[in-house]
Each structure stands twice: as structure tokens, then as C-alpha cells.
DNA sequence: TCTTCTTGCACTTTTGAATCGA
DNA sequence: ATCGATTCAAAAGTGCAAGAAG
């Protein structure tokens, strides 16, 4: 279960940059960025074009198959996942607990990387905690503009990231759709999956093109405004230091609170010891306190219902509503919207910020049971005592089954425990490295094919964002008939993929229904246990993987750099290499598409195209998928360079940013400047039915979760010193509708 | 009426400034 | 004057519970 999925869904395309800050001509009065003011400023300040990385630069290539990410506190996450992780969201923003504590390896120590966190919906359902279990009760709320939290240390060298624990404990979740603090906005009672993205930045002004995305299925959670499952509350109290007061021996424990209440009632002036006020206090103390990690785990395990019949958690099989396909939601930095700190990047870089000790390193609140995912995946199989999960036999394209409406969809977290090899024995933690891709978000689950919520498939893949144009198309991946009028959009998008780097064209096809390759997920409704292999094939026409009709075309791939500090100009690379005097997003335009797993270059995959699918009991990969994988010719490891040199990228001439006023470090960015522009919200789509028959299960408010491009935006707040902190991923071309929204590839959101 | 969300409360931890002494 | 250790207070993070809102 401790699976780390890597998928090159990050799409950073220069073609979209021009839409924002980089234009062929001097910045016009209006920039399609938000906030407009900041965008205009940035547009005037930034170079007109982004430069691609130096062609055939071996140093720019980071072997993707070597990049590994470990979830340090995986066991803690597993404890929560077993019960059904709930995350409190508040208007002011709430930190995540457990937090994401990660270890990175395999990075080029000398190269710089950005580490980003985004959280994407797992399905299109809204949940309710009933009868001790979470049940899908209707369609999800309209998706809000996605935000991405950029680790404060970003950008930093690979040595920096690898020398310490990477923690995102500063990231906050909020349900305030108007949040201006840069928190990640989520809907309550929805299921989400955090994703970690590692983006290579050759230097301050150049994106190296290396993109790595990781998903830890055990980190998926349900958002709530108040804890629904008392087991989660118990776990949180016993695990979170800030909640110590609520423990049995804490001053804010139930006992103490009752005592205080009693004291208030009796006599407000009484000065009795609150402990003694409780008649049962001194003699009722529990001998053991669940404070240690061992105790916590014991607690979690003890509190778990019987495996076969979990008393709590999700029960997907009971879901009344068919989870519609959730498209992979690639992180599109092309539309990245940086809320703040952009101006500080240059300074930080110049000062060697990457060497600064991360504040997160000291964070030891959470356990450090690191789960390593390396190329030793086969070991999982050997060590795994869990039976293989039944592979979906259904077709790739999940079809909503109205008959299932009678059965509320519930999600059972319990299976994850058994399915996770690491949980049983951390020492035997399988090292997983795969050459296949998994989808960040599972396709809609088929109620008829219930799968464990967290099918703990130890399939964590390291995939190159790009593959060789010679990558054979896998017949097993067939794009489902497009629906909802998206066909044209998709088609147009496919055409664009052929020329991803041309001007303002929308290059990314990562989110096309194809991309989702949902076909590989028979159901999941849970994390891609056995995620379908996905890779960036934006520049190549590959067979479209089956996906739900809701699948939407990918987002644009523009990446706008609001500002660059003058310090950047002094950056060694920049000075030494004139070509570096420009932002390079060339390689960030990788497109994610479903493709045969065998196409992935990892050597280990050659003998075993999908070793990850075999060992884990949670592998929900359709047999057809595996077959296709095995049948697909193996691709040479070197066939898919991380940085795919694309001559077309050179269309962006070098730009000397020196003298650009906006690069002044004095320019600051303020989160408050980032607000939800109306245009960012889904627009009503008159073409879609406004009402659904009451007899039918509630439809998702949105047909699918298209990829939402990121937009970078300057944050003029002077007080913020953290560089590159937030990216706001905004909906692009999304038409909201009471029942859903869809991407409009023909138009582009203008902020 | 029920469910969900908001808000205030009490508690804890974290953080940074202030203080003190070597 | 500098440095390190200690103290203190403010800020921030918790869950709980009552009440409000839909």
C-alpha cells in the first residue's frame, strides 16, 4: 500500500506562457492573469519568451527512474487510512494531520527543484458519515480553483531536498472559497488525494523539464468541518502534540472538562482542584497512555473492525452513485498561479537557500517510519503475505450502474491495512520502483466492482514525463467515445498536441480523457491502486486510453513567471550561460497520457513490465491491462529522456531579463492579492441539463475533474519572504453547470 | 427535524524576543 | 561586546461543544 506513484502529469508548456507574462510583443494592457494588476506588471517585466533548455544537455537529464520519494510517516498515515482519514477544514485554514513528511532521493544534487503539493478530488461524490461508515450521498460540489502549495524551500538543489525531510505541515486546508491566504481550498465531505510534484528548475530562469509526481494512496482523506468518526478523533488526539490536552491525562480531557463544567455549576468561586472535582478522576485513570508510536499503532489496530467486515470507513461497493471517471489532473504549471514569494526566488537562489536547513527538518511530531519505494519492488511480492487483489475484469471504461444506486457507496479503509506490506512490517518495506505510471486520481469506480478504498497497491512508479515518439501504441488503450460535446474539444486538443509548443496553442493533452487512461482502473473509487501507466506523450499521438465520457481535455500548459529578482541575474548559470537568461518551460509541457506500461524505460521493467501489480493484494489492474503491458514491446530505458529536446521549443528566443523593473527584489507579493476571480469559477453551461431526474442518482456537479492549469502570479506582499510558496491552479476553460462543468478548449480563461 | 458549519473555549506547542551570566 | 542558555509571552494549532444556518 505504501505505494508511491509517479506520473509525469506535470505539464509546463511555454506555449501558455505567452498568454500570461510572456508574449511576442511587449505586455499589452491586459494580461490574462490574475490578479490583473500583478499580471500586467509581471507581463511588462518578464521576458517575452521562455527559452528551452540547452539542447542535448546531458546534465539536464535526471534519470526519472532514479528519483524516489518516501513517505516517512507512512505508518501513521496507514493508521488513519485504516479508519478513514478525515481532515478538518476551516475558514481560516487548518493544517493537515498527519502531515506529509517525505524523503527524496535520486535527484541531481546540483540541480534545483521545486517541490509542490496539490490536492485533487478522488471522485465526484459527496460523502456522509452514516452508520459508522462513509457513504456517497450525492454528487460533488463544483470544483473550485485548485491551488498548489509550493514548498517554502523551493527552489532548492537536489542535495538540499535529499538532505532533509520534506514536510508540508505548513500547508493549510480551507473551505473558504474566497480564501486569500493561499490555503488549499477544498470542499467539505469530499475525498481528496494529495500529490507531490518535483519539478526540475535548471536555474532560476530555466525549467529543466524534469517532472516527477508522486502519490501516496494512504494519504487520501475526507474533508470535514468536524470529525465524524470518533476513532479518527482518538487517533488525532493521541498522535497530534497539539491535542495533548485532550488526552486522558490532559487538562482538556473529557474528564477534566466535565469536572470544570461541574465546578461551574456547583460554585463558580470554588477553588477545588478540577481533577478532584471529578468523582471518578483519581481512581479512573487509565494506566496506559496512548502516546508512543507503538501505542498509537496498537490503538489503531485494536480499534479496527474485523477486516472482512469493517465497521467504519468507506464501502465503495455500497455507493449509490457511480463514481465517474476522475481524470488525472496533471499539475499544469503552465497555468501556475504563484501567489507569493516569486520575487524572493532569485535571492534565495543566489544566497544558496537550498543549503539552508529546512524548518521541516525539525518537525518530528510525526513518526519517521519511512517507507521506501525503490526498484526493489519484486521484494514486495516475495515478502507480501497478502493475497493478490482481484484484478478487475470489467472493461476499462467504468460505466455508471444505475442499479447500484440502491447501495450507498461506502468506503472501507480497512483493506488498506492488510494490503499494505509495509504496515505489517516496516523492515520488510518493499522498495518499489516501477517503470509504469499510475493515475493520480482513480477513475470512477464501478459500483459493481467495489474495490478497497485504499487498495494499497504498492505500485509506485517512476515515469519519464516524456516518451520516445516511437513508443508503440497499445491497442488496449482505446479512447472511449467522447461525450458531452467534448469530442471536438478533445480532437482539437489532440491536434494541438502535435504542436504543443507553438505559440499560444494549448499543448497539453495530459488531461484528455485519454490521459486518464481510466480504463486501467476498473474501479477504484479509491486511489489508483494499480494506477494505469501514464506518461507524458503530449507530442505523440498514442492510443487513447478508455476513459469516462466526462474526461476533459487537458489544460493549457503555460507557466508564467511573475517576476525575477535581480539576484537572478547574478546567478552563476545565468551569467555563465547566456541562454539561461530566460525561463525555460520547454520541458514542462510534458503531456500525460495513458500508454502501455512497457513503454517506460526503466530497466527493471523490462523483465517485469509491471512487477508492482503482482505482489500487492491491492492491485486493481485489469487483466487486460496487464496483458497489454506484457504484450507491449519494452522500450529502451534511454528512449525517454526526461528532458525531451524539442526543437520547437527553441521558438522562444532568449530574453535578457536584466533591467526588467519587476525583477526588483523590492517587489513583493501578497496573498491577499490573489483572489478568486469570477472567471476562475466554473461557468454555467446552458447546454447541460439543469436538473436531473429525482429517480436517478445524483450526478456529480461536474462531469469530471479536468486538469486545471496553473497560473503563476506575483504576490506583492512585502512581508512574505518565502519564495515560490504557492501556486494557484485555476480552472481553465471550465464551464460550470449545476450538474457539472467541462473544459472549453476553444476558449481560454482570462483573468 | 436533521445535518452541517461556525465560533468560542481551553489547552498545548511553537516561536521569537528578552534577559542573564560567563 | 559576544555567545549561549534560560525565561517568558505571544502566536498558532488542537478538539470540543454549543449554537447557527440551511
From TrEMBL:
<dbReference type="GO" id="GO:0000785">
    <property type="term" value="C:chromatin"/>
</dbReference>
<keyword id="KW-0217">Developmental protein</keyword>
<dbReference type="InterPro" id="IPR018186">
    <property type="entry name" value="TF_T-box_CS"/>
</dbReference>
<dbReference type="GO" id="GO:0001756">
    <property type="term" value="P:somitogenesis"/>
</dbReference>
<dbReference type="GO" id="GO:0005634">
    <property type="term" value="C:nucleus"/>
</dbReference>
<feature type="compositionally biased region" description="Polar residues">
    <location>
        <begin position="395"/>
        <end position="412"/>
    </location>
</feature>
<dbReference type="GO" id="GO:0000978">
    <property type="term" value="F:RNA polymerase II cis-regulatory region sequence-specific DNA binding"/>
</dbReference>
<dbReference type="GO" id="GO:0000981">
    <property type="term" value="F:DNA-binding transcription factor activity, RNA polymerase II-specific"/>
</dbReference>
<protein>
    <recommendedName>
        <fullName>T-box domain-containing protein</fullName>
    </recommendedName>
</protein>
<dbReference type="GO" id="GO:0016331">
    <property type="term" value="P:morphogenesis of embryonic epithelium"/>
</dbReference>
<feature type="compositionally biased region" description="Pro residues">
    <location>
        <begin position="598"/>
        <end position="612"/>
    </location>
</feature>
<feature type="compositionally biased region" description="Low complexity">
    <location>
        <begin position="446"/>
        <end position="459"/>
    </location>
</feature>
<dbReference type="InterPro" id="IPR036960">
    <property type="entry name" value="T-box_sf"/>
</dbReference>
<dbReference type="Pfam" id="PF00907">
    <property type="entry name" value="T-box"/>
</dbReference>
<feature type="region of interest" description="Disordered">
    <location>
        <begin position="593"/>
        <end position="613"/>
    </location>
</feature>
<keyword id="KW-0238">DNA-binding</keyword>
<keyword id="KW-0539">Nucleus</keyword>
<keyword id="KW-0805">Transcription regulation</keyword>
<dbReference type="InterPro" id="IPR001699">
    <property type="entry name" value="TF_T-box"/>
</dbReference>
<dbReference type="InterPro" id="IPR008967">
    <property type="entry name" value="p53-like_TF_DNA-bd_sf"/>
</dbReference>
<feature type="compositionally biased region" description="Low complexity">
    <location>
        <begin position="417"/>
        <end position="439"/>
    </location>
</feature>
<dbReference type="InterPro" id="IPR046360">
    <property type="entry name" value="T-box_DNA-bd"/>
</dbReference>
<feature type="region of interest" description="Disordered">
    <location>
        <begin position="395"/>
        <end position="487"/>
    </location>
</feature>
<feature type="domain" description="T-box">
    <location>
        <begin position="71"/>
        <end position="248"/>
    </location>
</feature>
<dbReference type="GO" id="GO:0045893">
    <property type="term" value="P:positive regulation of DNA-templated transcription"/>
</dbReference>
<dbReference type="GO" id="GO:0001708">
    <property type="term" value="P:cell fate specification"/>
</dbReference>
<keyword id="KW-0804">Transcription</keyword>
Amino acid at each position: 500500500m505504501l505505494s508511491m506513484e509517479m506520473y509525469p502529469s506535470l505539464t509546463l508548456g511555454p506555449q501558455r506562457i505567452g498568454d500570461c507574462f510572456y508574449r511576442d510583443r511587449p505586455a499589452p494592457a491586459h494580461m490574462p492573469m490574475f490578479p490583473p494588476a500583478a499580471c500586467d506588471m509581471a507581463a511588462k517585466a518578464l521576458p517575452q519568451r521562455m527559452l528551452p533548455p540547452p539542447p542535448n544537455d546531458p546534465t539536464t537529464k535526471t534519470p526519472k527512474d532514479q528519483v524516489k520519494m518516501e513517505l516517512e510517516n507512512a505508518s501513521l498515515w496507514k493508521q488513519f487510512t485504516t479508519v478513514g482519514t478525515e481532515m478538518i477544514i476551516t475558514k481560516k485554514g487548518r493544517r493537515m494531520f498527519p502531515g506529509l513528511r517525505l524523503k527524496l532521493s535520486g535527484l541531481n544534487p546540483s540541480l534545483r527543484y521545486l517541490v509542490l503539493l496539490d490536492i485533487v478530488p478522488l471522485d465526484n461524490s459527496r460523502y456522509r458519515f452514516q452508520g459508522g461508515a462513509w457513504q456517497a450521498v450525492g454528487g460533488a460540489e463544483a470544483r473550485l480553483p485548485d491551488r498548489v502549495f509550493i514548498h517554502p524551500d523551493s527552489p532548492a538543489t537536489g542535495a538540499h531536498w535529499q538532505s532533509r525531510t520534506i514536510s508540508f505541515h505548513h500547508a493549510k486546508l480551507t473551505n473558504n472559497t474566497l480564501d486569500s491566504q493561499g490555503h488549499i481550498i477544498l470542499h467539505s465531505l469530499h475525498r481528496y488525494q494529495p500529490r507531490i510534484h518535483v519539478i526540475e528548475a535548471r536555474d532560476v530562469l530555466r525549467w529543466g523539464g524534469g517532472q516527477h509526481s508522486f502519490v501516496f494512496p494512504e494519504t487520501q482523506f475526507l474533508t470535514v468541518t468536524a470529525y465524524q468518526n470518533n476513532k479518527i478523533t482518538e487517533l488525532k488526539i493521541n498522535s497530534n502534540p497539539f491535542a495533548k490536552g485532550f488526552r486522558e491525562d490532559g487538562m482538556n480531557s473529557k474528564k477534566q472538562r466535565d469536572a470544570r463544567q461541574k465546578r461551574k455549576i456547583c460554585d463558580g468561586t470554588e477553588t477545588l482542584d478540577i481533577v478532584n472535582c471529578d468523582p471518578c478522576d483519581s481512581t479512573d485513570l487509565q494506566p496506559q497512555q496512548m502516546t508512543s508510536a507503538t501505542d498509537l499503532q496498537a490503538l489503531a489496530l485494536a480499534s479496527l473492525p474485523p477486516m472482512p467486515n469493517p465497521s467504519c470507513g468507506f464501502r465503495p461497493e455500497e455507493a449509490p452513485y457511480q463514481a465517474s471517471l476522475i481524470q488525472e489532473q496533471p499539475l499544469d504549471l503552465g497555468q501556475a498561479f504563484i501567489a507569493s514569494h516569486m520575487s524572493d526566488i532569485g535571492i534565495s537562489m543566489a544566497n544558496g537557500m537550498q543549503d539552508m536547513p529546512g524548518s521541516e527538518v525539525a518537525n518530528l511530531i510525526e513518526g519517521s517510519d519511512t517507507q521506501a519505494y525503490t526498484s526493489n519492488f519484486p521484494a514486495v511480492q516475495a515478502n507480501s503475505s497478502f493475497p493478490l487483489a482481484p484484478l478487475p475484469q470489467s472493461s476499462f471504461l467504468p460505466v455508471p450502474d444505475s442499479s447500484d444506486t440502491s447501495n450507498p457507496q461506502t468506503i472501507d479503509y480497512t483493506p488498506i491495512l492488510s494490503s499494505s506490506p509495509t504496515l505489517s512490517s516496516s523492515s520488510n518495506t518493499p522498495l518499489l520502483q516501477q517503470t509504469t505510471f499510475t493515475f493520480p486520481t482513480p477513475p470512477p469506480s464501478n459500483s459493481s466492482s467495489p474495490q478497497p478504498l485504499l487498495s494499497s497497491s504498492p505500485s509506485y512508479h517512476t515515469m519519464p514525463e516524456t516518451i520516445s515518439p516511437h513508443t508503440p501504441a497499445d491497442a488496449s488503450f482505446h479512447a472511449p467515445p467522447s461525450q458531452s460535446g467534448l469530442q471536438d474539444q478533445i480532437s482539437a486538443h489532440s491536434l494541438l498536441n502535435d504542436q504543443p509548443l507553438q505559440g499560444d496553442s494549448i499543448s497539453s493533452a495530459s488531461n484528455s480523457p485519454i490521459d486518464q487512461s481510466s480504463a486501467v482502473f476498473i474501479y477504484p473509487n479509491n486511489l489508483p491502486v494499480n494506477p494505469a501507466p501514464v506518461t507524458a506523450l503530449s507530442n505523440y499521438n498514442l492510443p487513447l486510453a478508455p476513459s469516462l465520457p466526462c474526461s476533459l481535455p487537458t489544460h493549457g500548459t503555460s507557466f508564467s513567471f511573475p517576476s525575477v529578482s535581480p539576484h537572478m541575474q547574478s546567478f552563476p548559470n545565468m551569467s555563465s550561460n547566456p541562454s539561461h537568461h530566460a525561463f525555460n518551460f520547454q520541458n514542462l509541457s510534458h503531456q500525460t497520457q495513458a500508454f502501455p506500461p512497457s513503454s517506460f524505460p526503466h530497466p527493471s521493467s523490462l523483465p517485469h513490465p509491471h512487477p508492482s501489480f503482482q505482489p500487492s493484494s491491492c492491485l486493481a489492474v485489469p487483466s487486460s491491462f496487464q496483458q497489454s503491458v506484457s504484450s507491449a514491446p519494452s522500450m529502451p530505458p534511454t528512449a525517454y529522456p526526461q528532458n525531451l529536446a524539442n526543437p520547437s521549443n527553441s521558438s522562444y528566443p532568449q530574453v535578457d531579463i536584466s533591467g526588467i523593473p519587476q525583477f526588483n527584489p523590492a517587489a513583493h507579493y501578497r496573498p491577499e492579492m490573489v483572489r478568486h476571480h469570477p472567471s476562475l469559477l466554473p461557468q454555467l453551461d446552458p447546454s447541460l441539463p439543469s436538473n436531473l431526474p429525482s429517480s436517478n442518482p445524483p450526478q456529480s456537479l461536474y462531469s469530471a475533474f479536468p486538469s486545471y492549469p496553473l497560473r503563476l502570479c506575483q504576490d506583492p506582499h512585502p512581508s512574505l519572504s518565502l519564495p515560490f510558496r504557492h501556486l494557484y491552479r485555476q480552472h481553465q476553460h471550465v464551464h460550470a453547470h449545476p450538474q457539472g462543468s467541462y473544459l472549453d478548449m476553444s476558449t481560454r480563461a482570462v483573468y
